[in-house]
Amino acid sequence: MTSKQRVRASIAHQQPDRVAIDYYARGEITQRLCEHLGISDGESLEQKIGVDVTCVHPIFKSLLTPRCYADPTVEITPDGLHRDIWGVGFRANQTEVGFYMDLADYPLRDLGSVAELDDYPWPTADSWDYSQVRAEAEGKSHLWVYIHSRGIFEISWFLRGFDNLLSDMAAAPERANAVMDRVQEYLMERTRRVLEAGQGAIDMVEYNDDVAAQNGLLLSPRMWREFLKPRIAAFIRMCKPYDVKIKYHCCGGLRPIIPDLIDLGVDVLNPVQVLAAGMEPAALKREFGERLTFNGGVDTQQLLPNASRDEVVARTRWLVDTLGAGGGYILGPSHAFQADVPLENVLAVYETALGRKL
To answer: In order of start, what are the domains of the chain with their CATH numbers?
Structure first.
C-alpha cells in the first residue's frame, strides 16, 4: 500500500498492510533523531521512519520570528514578550529538558462590554498566502495530507484568561459568545481558504482544541454542548463538502463527549492520552472502535521517559494489536515526544511498527 491507501483503509476500518504511522515531537527530539539516523539536508526523517501522514500550511506573509506557541509571533516587546496574531503574550522558557513558549499575558482579561470587541485588532485570513498549498499537497500525494486549525475554546481563554472565560460562560454568556464568535469567524475563513487552495488535494482537516486535562473535562459536558458543540458542528459542515476527513485533537480525559464528536462527524481522535481519566485504549476500542479511528496512544507521561526499550516494544505491539484490530488506528505518541524521552525509546516505537531496524 501507499501511505495514502494505508491511512484511508485504517479510517475505513479495514486492515492495512501494516499499521499507519504518525510522528510529532519537540524540536530537540527531531534534531537528535536526524543526527542519529544520518539525515542530511534534502532528506526526510518522516520517510526514513515510515510516517504516512503529512501536514501542509499556508505561509504567513510577514513572519517576524520562528519562535511562537502555535500562531505566528507578530510583536516582540522590549521586555521579551512574544505577542501572536491574537495579541496573546508568551515568554520563551529554556528548561532543563527542552524549550517551550509559556503563556504570559491575556489581552482581553479586563474586557467589559461586548462593544469593546469592535475595536480589538482581530487577525484576518488575508494575512496568509495560500498560493503554494495545492503544489505542496500534490507533491506529497502518496502521503495522507492534512491541514491544521486551532480551536475556539483554547484561543478564547488565551485571550480572556481561563477563569474569566469560564465565568463568562456561566454568568455572562453574551460576552463568552461574542469572543468565541470572533475567533470562529477567523478560523473558519482561514480553513475555507486553505481547502479552496488545495483544490481536492487535501485528505483531512485537524481541529485542535484542548478541552480536557488529566482528570477529565475542563468544563462540564453541558457547557461544552452549549457553547462549543454547535460551533464545531458549523466548522465541520463547512469542511465536509471538500471531501475531507475530520481529525479532532484534544489532550486529556474527554471520554464524556466522545459520542458527541462521533455524532458531529469526527473521523479521527488524537492523541489518546492513555493515562487520563476514561482513556484506557481497550475500552475505547470496544465502545467506539467501529465508528472512530484512534491516532496516538503511546504514553509520553510515564512509559516513554522511564521504561526500558523492551517495555516500549511490548506496549507498542499491544497498542497495534488492540487499537489496530480491523483497522481504525494510526500509531503515534499520546502527545508530542518530549525532550526527556530516550532516543532508543522513540526508535523502539517505529522499529516495532515497521518490523525492522532503523
So the answer is: 3-60+109-354 (3.20.20.210)
